[in-house]
Write a structure and sequence with these properties.
The protein is mainly alpha-helical. The chain contains eleven helices and six strands. It is globular and about 75 Å long.
Length: 331
């Protein structure tokens, strides 16, 4: 079955259950077909295009005003829906028993297998949309004999609307491994439990920690879990809006804020230490599932780091309240 048909069938099936945003794969293909039927420009104009660095051999309104803006809007909707629903799922998994009971009374899923199935649905949704975006951009480049599709992909990665870069996908990967490990530790055996991922693991490669996952034969995600500030395995990890992962206390230091105030107090002009993007701290995502995974997988390191972090936080809290008292009393 061709991917376009497979994708349309999947989205139709999902829309019967819930109103999901998706990539207008069929509509975008039709736009490209119209573009392909256009005659090539005279060689004189083509030569001018090449001189100006224009890889597209046609003067095409589709390139400038239709195809890319439409695809960008659809990508924003897809990643927004995925982030929102993955966040709700993981918050429910980590919620108190009382909150889970309230959720059950409201008729929403809160039992173990239900959470896994919802997680599986989210992963499938992320994967098939990631493949759809990759295929439509490849088709664009093939028709236009250009690399503008790949350039657009790089652009949306910088904008953080590429779904495989979502911090909530990282959290779902950690959630998947945590569930497997909890099952092993408890000795419980579930009857044919659904699995979020085929091959997903927490590994050390040359002493560096990674979350590694093969979503399909052609899509693989590797997430480096080394904090680029302290150069150690991340502790109490957070993901900035640019996607880079740091220890919470290291991120506070980079943002020039006290841990008492937190990252929401960061000045918008503060930059990510790696990519130098601004306005990346206020929307940071706390990676709770990843923190649980690291605590379980690196027990000795986690305990040692917890002691040093506690001392550092107490010291910063003391300095903060001393400063507040002096400011209040004028001493």
């Amino acid at each position: 079955m061709k991917f376009c048909k497979k994708y349309e069938e999947y989205m139709q099936e999902q829309k019967e259950k819930k109103n999901l945003p998706g990539v207008g794969f069929k509509k975008l293909k039709k736009i490209l077909k119209k573009c392909r039927r256009r005659d090539h420009l005279p060689s004189r104009i083509a030569s001018v295009n090449q001189q100006h660095g224009n890889n597209c051999p046609r003067e095409c309104a589709v390139c400038d005003g239709t195809f890319f803006p439409e695809l960008q809007k659809e990508m924003e909707d897809v990643v927004g829906w995925f982030n929102e629903n993955a966040q709700k799922l993981l918050e429910l998994h980590l919620a108190s028993s009382f909150k889970k009971c309230l959720t059950w009374f409201k008729g929403k899923t809160s039992h173990h297998l239900g959470l896994i199935q919802e997680g599986q649905d989210l992963v499938n949704y992320a994967l098939i949309n990631a493949v759809a975006i990759r295929k439509i951009l490849k088709k664009y480049d093939k028709i236009h004999e250009s690399s503008q599709g790949q350039a657009f992909k790089t652009q949306v990665q910088k904008m953080r609307i590429e779904i495989l870069q979502s911090p909530w996908l990282c959290e779902l990967m950690a959630f998947h491994i945590n569930l497997k490990e909890s099952q092993k530790e408890s000795g419980a055996v579930l009857a044919s439990p659904p699995s979020l991922f085929g091959g997903c693991s927490f590994i050390f490669d040359d002493g560096k920690p990674f979350l590694s996952c093969e979503l399909s034969d052609s899509v693989k995600v590797d997430i480096d879990l080394t904090c680029s500030i302290c150069l150690d395995t991340v502790f109490d990890p957070i993901s900035l809006t640019c996607g880079h992962i740091y220890c919470y206390i290291c991120a506070c230091s980079a943002a020039s804020v006290n841990v008492v105030d937190g990252l929401k107090a960061a000045d918008p002009s503060e930059k990510c230490p790696l990519c130098r993007e601004v306005c990346v701290y206020k929307g940071a995502v706390h990676l709770d599932e990843l923190s649980i995974l690291l605590k379980r997988s690196c027990r000795e390191y986690w305990e040692e780091r917890r002691k040093t972090e506690r001392a550092e936080r107490l010291q910063q809290a003391k300095e903060y309240w001393d400063y507040q008292c002096r400011s209040f009393t004028g001493i």
